[in-house]
Amino acid sequence: MNLAPHAGSCPVCENGLLRFQQCENCYAVSLICDECESSWSDVVAISNNLSTPPDGSYPYCVRCQANSNWIYLNPLGIEQAGLTPFIRGESR
């Protein structure tokens, strides 16, 4: 089984991991908790300050205002988005 990158633990529920996901409609990258589904459209802000409140929740995309299908990004997709420095680990 492949390991999926994450940006650390969710500061809202403290149980989930923040996964890099891309909106299928507008291609914006957000961090979405794999447990409580809170989302952050500003990856840099939440990575630098875990007290940053979520600005949405799955499946809503803050950028394009759509209920979207989301694509989990692999390490290459995260690299292409310029977000590799924000990977904190990998897990299933």
What does this structure look like?
This protein has 92 residues and is an alpha+beta fold. It has one domain (10-84). It is built from 2 helices and 7 strands; from the N terminus they run ββββαββαβ. The protein has helices at residues 43-48, 75-80; strands spanning 4-9, 17-23, 29-33, 38-40, 56-57, 70-72, 89-91. Strands 1, 2, 3, 4, 5, 6 and 7 form a 7-stranded antiparallel beta sheet that branches. Strand 2 and strand 3 (29-33) form a beta hairpin. The mean pLDDT is 94.
- Rg (CA only): 12 Å
What is the helix content?
Answer: 10-25%
Q: Strand percentage, roughly?
A: 25-35%
Largest sheet, strands/sense/barrel: 7 strands, antiparallel
Structural class of the helices, strands and pairings?
Answer: alpha+beta
Note the gap between the termini. Answer: 7 Å
Summarize the structure.
This protein is an alpha+beta fold.
Sum up the structure in keywords.
globular, 2 helices, 92 residues, alpha+beta, seven-stranded antiparallel sheet
Give a topology summary.
Layout lengths: L3 E6 L7 E7 L5 E5 L4 E3 L2 H6 L7 E2 L12 E3 L2 H6 L8 E3 L1
Antiparallel strand pairs: 1-2, 1-7, 2-3, 2-6, 3-4, 4-5
